[in-house]
Automatic annotation (TrEMBL):
Annotated organism of origin: Bugula neritina
Family membership: Belongs to the phospholipase B-like family.
Span of the signal peptide: 1-15
Protein name: Phospholipase B-like
Record-level GO cellular component terms: extracellular region
Pfam families: Phospholip_B (PF04916)
Length: 542
């Protein structure tokens, strides 16, 4: 079957990895190629990988066997004439077509996390904001074709357009999704804050919360633990990230994008992701120009900041992609991210420049840059000196004092205690105590899966006051959310675009594997029933 697809993109509406254990079942693999014709039309051909095509891709569906799918696409390497927009559109189309079943499940599994409990009026306001923002972005791309930022954003929108059209082509009518579904998927991180922008009624009164209630709120809205670890004589650098969110989001795909576009600072990016997402969300990125990006989410306790959020802005997921596409150094990255700050998905970003590292010799200035964002303000600076001391931890509390203060943390710490502070949050104490124990890949994996809440005095018997939270094991009010994955790499692996990854809540310290039978009323279409996976090695398929 072939599709003849005429392309006029302005609007974005319109070999296998190695595994270290035996498969439960053989992963399924599909592939396709898109050709560009002399008249500029595109032809989609399934079940073919042709390096002479405009774009070609492979999707290995290993969700139920290993915990991870793998999607690998190369676009723009044919000898035929093509525009940069063609290159990105074709890549998006292939992803939408090859992963459509998982996109459908992912949307239906997580939409309730953002929409349940809100009135039709609030949801209508949310859609209006997103549509207004999208229309504004499209207009700016059209009006600013010579501007580097807007050209880069336009490439992402072309890929988005391809994703939506590829999905629509492959999915049967009963699985049709509208544009809002793709706005929700790609803007999942932004929606954490955006719902409080469009609905003042959704903003909780922190002063009326108990300490445990506030912890539950923070753990549900906070995203992730991260650690960058340097060995004593600079023999190696390890970097890792463990995501925290609802377990319904555990439909995981590790993605490899390779785009032959001259203006991209990094033509190849590798990242942990999800069906229908053109970004990581976690974030965990390995880039071919030597940049590594990790991210954890900070909370906004000062809701007055949301008054600065407007739709005339770029959502975080777009700005992250732009920064990745345009930055040649860690130092540049924050300046790209800061432009047209949406004030949504307010995070701490860690960008490590491996070009500034010489193993066994030196870690040069500007090797590690930290960027933190809140509505109306972005701060970034060199944190290399702290990294040289051995490690950089990240655990959902702002590092920069100005961001910490503007976000409202001092008042929270005063009323609820030091567990919400930068220096004495439970994970800060655990990282400070245990980071020195990381000496190799196995010990790095261990610390990022660590959960010994029954014994560890810093956890105080709270299953979420630890590196890898188990919300389903909380004594007061279990819920299917928490830490549900880990990604780990080192200097050499990053150069090869490889990483060790694991899907599922931690089983550290003999904790039982999570199973959906404990939460039969939680939507989990297509997901594994029980998460008892091991670490698996991700590497490019093409």
């Amino acid at each position: 079957m072939r599709l003849l697809c005429f392309l006029a993109v302005v609007s974005w509406i319109s070999a296998a990895p190695d595994f270290n254990y035996k498969f439960k079942e053989k992963p399924l693999q599909t592939n396709a190629t898109i050709y560009i014709q002399k008249d500029g039309s595109l032809v989609y051909t399934p079940d073919v990988v042709d390096t002479k095509g405009l774009a070609y891709a492979v999707f290995q569906d290993g969700l139920l066997s290993s915990g991870w799918g793998v999607f690998d696409v190369k676009s723009g390497y044919s000898s035929s004439s093509q525009s940069d927009q063609d290159v990105m559109f074709a890549a998006g189309f292939l992803e939408g077509a090859l992963t459509y079943k998982h996109i459908y499940n992912q949307y239906n599994n997580i939409k309730g996390t953002f929409l349940n409990g809100y009135s039709e009026d609030v949801i209508a306001k949310l859609k209006t904001f997103l549509n207004t923002q999208q229309a504004w972005m499209e207009k700016e791309v059209f009006l600013n074709k010579e501007n580097a930022l807007w050209r880069s954003a336009g490439l992402i929108f072309s890929q988005y357009s391809g994703l939506v059209q590829g999905y629509s082509y492959a999915a049967p009518k009963e699985m049709a999704l509208d544009n809002f579904a793709f706005q929700l998927l790609n803007g999942a991180g932004d929606l954490i804050d955006l719902i409080h922008v469009v609905s003042r009624e959704s903003r909780p009164d922190f002063s009326k919360m108990t300490k445990d209630e506030l912890k539950a709120y923070v753990q549900k809205n906070g995203h992730c633990s991260a650690l960058i670890k340097v060995l004593g004589a600079y023999e190696n650098i390890f970097f890792s990230h463990s995501s925290w969110f609802v377990y319904q989001a555990t439909n995981r795909i590790f993605k490899y994008y390779s785009f032959n576009i001259e203006e991209l600072a990094s033509k190849e990016i590798s990242f942990s992701s999800y069906p229908g997402f053109l970004e990581s969300l976690d974030d965990f990125y390995l880039m071919s120009n030597g940049l590594i990006m990790l991210q954890t989410t900070n909370n906004v306790f000062n809701y007055d900041l949301y008054d600065m959020v407007t739709p005339q802005s770029l959502p975080a997921w777009v700005r992250v992609r732009v920064a990745n596409q345009k930055s040649n150094t860690a130092k540049e990255w924050g300046s790209w991210l800061s432009q047209y700050n949406s004030g949504t998905y307010n995070n701490q970003y860690m960008v490590l420049d491996l070009n500034k590292v010489v193993l066994n010799e030196a870690i040069y200035d500007d090797a590690l840059y930290i960027t933190e964002q809140i509505p109306g303000y972005v701060k970034f600076g060199d944190a290399t000196e702290k990294l040289r001391l051995g490690y950089w931890p990240s655990y959902n509390v702002p590092f920069f004092e100005e961001v910490y203060n503007r976000s409202g943390y001092p008042a929270i710490v005063e009323s609820k205690g030091l567990d919400f502070s930068y220096q004495l949050a439970p994970r800060a104490k655990i990282f400070r105590r245990d980071a020195a124990k990381v000496i190799d890949m196995d010990t790095m994996k261990h610390i990022m899966r660590y959960n010994d809440y029954k014994v560890d005095p810093y956890s105080e018997k709270n299953a979420c006051d630890t590196i890898c939270c188990r919300g389903d094991l909380l004594v007061n009010g279990t819920r299917p959310d928490g830490c549900y994955d880990t990604k780990v790499a080192d200097l050499k692996m990053a150069a090869d675009r490889t990483a060790w990854v694991i899907n599922g809540p931690s089983t550290s310290s003999s904790l039982p594997p999570f199973t959906w039978s404990q939460f039969p009323n939680s939507t989990h279409a297509g997901l594994p029933d029980t998460y008892d996976f091991n670490f698996v090695l991700m590497k490019p398929l093409l």
